[in-house]
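Reviewers of the previous submission asked for a worked example of the structure-prediction workflow described in the proposal, so we include one complete record here. The input consisted solely of the amino acid sequence. No template or homolog information was supplied to the procedure at any stage.
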Amino acid sequence: DAVSNEIPVCVIGVYSAGKSAFLNAIIGRELLPSHERETTAKITKIVRADTTCIRFTYSGTEIKLPMDTGRPAENTVHTPELDVLLEQLNRIDGNLPEEQQVYQILEVVNALPMITLETPFRKSSLPDDIRFVFYDTPGAKTMDNPEHEEILKRELLKRSNGLPVFIANMDSIGKPDVIDTAISIVEKAGTSLDKRNTLLII
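From that input alone, the workflow returned the following structure tokens.
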């Protein structure tokens, strides 16, 4: 992008194709849940930072979970639903290694539409002068969802250099509907994603 050194990378694929494992390799740690089941029901925005922090919005309230304290930042707004969620988060053992805490937090908040994970990228070969922002999306079929589409469009707004990365396994390659859904997601993002430079990883 001519006016920004930030490059969004949108990671798309079917369930259990290895999207989260791919991003864990880039981060250099096992932070994102990756199982042989539908683990990512949300969009996770991953940003390189000096310390690890998780941010999300719940019932209109912005929540910040800095890992250096191991507990949610104090919030002035309280609702019964929010208090239940915070209680679940407070049950996570703050003495666990940071990787395990992040892993468990992401599983607790998995039903939310979007979460931001700020964290150091360890042993990363990515250049320091370019700010890559990664988006771990739900499985391709779930991503064909008006709410997820709108969130992704809003995040990529005013960008014209986004890189689509499609993660597939051998089983999904032979299914035209899966590929068509992934192509549709890229096309609906308009000029925010540069489909000419789509990267396919099997």
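The longest helix spans residues 176-188. We consider this example representative of the routine output the project will generate in years two and three.
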